[in-house]
Amino acid sequence: MKNLSKYILLILFIFSCSNKYEGVLADNGMVVSARQEASKIGVDILKKGGNAFDAMLATELALAVSYPSAGNIGGGGFMVYRKSDGSTGALDYRERAPINSTSDMYLDENMEVIEGLSMIGGLSVGVPGTIAGIFEAHERYGTLTINELISPVIELAKKGVIVTEKQKNRIEENRKYFKLVNKSKILFDNDFNTNDTIKFPNLASTLERIMEYGRDEFYKGETAKKLVEFIQNNGGIITLNDLESYKPVWRDPIIFNYDGLKIISMSPPSSGGVCINQIMKMIEPFDLKTFGHNSSNYIKLLVEAERRSFADRSHYLGDPDFIQVPVNKLTSESYLNIRMNDFSFEKPTDSNYIGYGNIEINESDETTHYSIVDQFGNAIAVTTTLNGTFGSKLYSNELGFFLNNEMDDFSSKPGYPNMYGLIGGEANKIEPQKRMLSSMTPTIVEKNGELFMTLGTPGGSTIITSVVQTILNVHEFNMTMQEAVNSARFHHQWKPDSIRIESELFDEKIKNNLIKSGYRLNDKVSIGRVDGILVKKDKKLEGGADKRGDDTAIGF
Ligand code: DON
User: Fold this and answer.
1) Above pLDDT 90, what percent of the chain?
2) H/E element holding 76?
3) Ligand 1 centroid distance, CA of 440 (Å)
4) 367 an active-site residue?
5) What is the pLDDT of residue 352?
6) To the nearest 5 percent, what fractions of the chain are helix, strand and coil?
7) For position 50, what pLDDT does the model report?
8) DSSP 239
9) pTM, rounded to two decimals
């Protein structure tokens, strides 16, 4: 399987090198998401006259049905929008720490981290924000009725979803955890083969109740009560009070200019916007085109900017409702110029010189991003997650969905890495009702005052660097959206001090040059799954759907 995905990536790469080729094109509107079923439901809503915010509600729920390893109603996310009149904004529906949580809840009596406690099972679950988020976006900007939006999703849950090969493998790889975490047999304990159909009658019933009683059904109604009982029976601490008091927050996005582009991205509690702002401003003074795409100098420059930005992330970033995040200072040009003073193409900067400790990474690959542009010219970028693949692995058979393990995005103990190897400190410590720091980077790009691109990706910490590289691929290296998405990626996050690299897709000479210069390479089969939409010069929409997954662009 690993070899097969390597092979597919290689073919895509060779194809993208030899031929300029485009993804799906459309004149009016488009949805790009991790599953064909979800993109189709979203586009059908647009065709019916709905706008991007209507399609968001339907697409998000359709992903909860068709892509349950990351699509969710038991998790949370962020949405960045740009309306046709040019106004922009962001919605934070990130999970929060339960009221009864404490900063040392994952530590033993010797103040050592209890391995796994923040990653699987009831105690790893943050208070879900997804239903509140999609209803909030719909209430403010949607136009169709909730019934019109949820009915097709209920139909999909009842009719069932075809299992893809990637999905089958994902379920198989996680089955041991499902058994470990859940007291009784769950739907996903069944053996599924590629092309089997999985039906979700219990999820359909939950969605029917939400359709009838609205957002409150999830936070105060029968679903809320069942959910709290279920989580508590499985070692969690979420109460009805947690659900009742959950609120999404409209936030000002991070907005900055890069070489004539205007970039609009997610603000804290995501680190995404701040980090891409820092990285892109640190590299802006250099002429990337003369380096060449994915050349060793290009990689060195980006890696060094990334290293510096992730070191700042670890120290300064967290939930702005709890701590002062010095966004202006961190993104000011004078500060970033000073930050790059010691950069050299000759040798890497030592991460120990900027920060601390060595780390092992236990990676996971699930979160999901979808991009929508509607026929009215509104654009949204949405990244939504359960955190790890199938989140906490805790699945309510009765309600039909998985619960997140987002608590692991907090820093369990200063200096201790989370599942993405990210280190945090005071700023991201656990506090009741606080939101955990995220890397999710839903982003919209404007060029000459007009919509240019909407994009984002899963991939934990690699989200940030994949978004930067995809924008640069289009803007600096003149790629189509699909080429930019296919293109080989690399990533550095300060700690551990190595470059994660889609090794098969890079020239040996370039890798050797990096190694000779003193960089350590950490080979990866794939990084991220970027889904984006580009507005071409002729105003056609071009979808870039990442073939590293089952992602699909559908337009009309
Ligand atoms: O919010 C975050 O940064 C993480 N919970 C995202 C997790 C993720 O992207 C996993 N998938 N690839």
Assistant:
1) 90
2) strand 76-82
3) 6
4) yes
5) 81
6) 40, 20, 45
7) 98
8) -
9) 0.95
Report the alpha-carbon distance of residue 79 to residue 170 in Å, rounded.
26
Of 402, 400, 411, whose CA–CA distance to 319 is shortest? 411
Q: At residue 18, does pLDDT exceed 80?
A: no
The Cα 489–Cα 470 span in angstroms is 9
Token reading at 388: 């790890």
Q: Name the residue at shortest CA distance from atom 5 of ligand 1.
A: 387
- Test site for ligand 1: of 385, 419, 465, 548, most ligand atoms within 8 A of the Cβ: 385
Q: Out of 130, 367, 368, 454, pick the active-site residue.
A: 367
**Stretch 463-485: mean pLDDT:** 98
CB of 35 closer than 8 Å to CB of 70: no
Ligand 1 neighbour 463 (Cβ under 6 A):
yes
Whether the CB of 34 sits within 6 Å of ligand 1: no
CA of 160 to the centre of ligand 1 (A): 27
Residue 440 in contact with ligand 1 by CB distance below 6 A: yes
The structure tokens listed for 319 are 């939930």
Q: Determine whether the shortest distance from the Cβ of 546 to ligand 1 is under 6 A.
A: no
Nearest partner of 99 among 238, 247, 226, 249, judged by Cα: 238
* pLDDT, tens digit, 9 for 90 and up, residues 111-167: 999 999 999 999 999 999 999 999 999 999 999 999 999 999 999 999 999 999 999
Question: Residue 85 carries which DSSP code?
Answer: T
Q: How far is the CA of 491 from the centre of ligand 1 (A)?
A: 15
Indicate whether 363 pLDDT > 60.
no
SS (H, E, C) 534-551: EECCCCCEEEEECCCCCC
pLDDT digits (tens, 9 = 90+) for 233-269: 999 999 999 999 999 999 999 999 999 999 999 999 9
Please check the confidence at residue 368 and state whether its pLDDT lies above 90. yes
| Residue 105: both structure tokens together | 């809840």
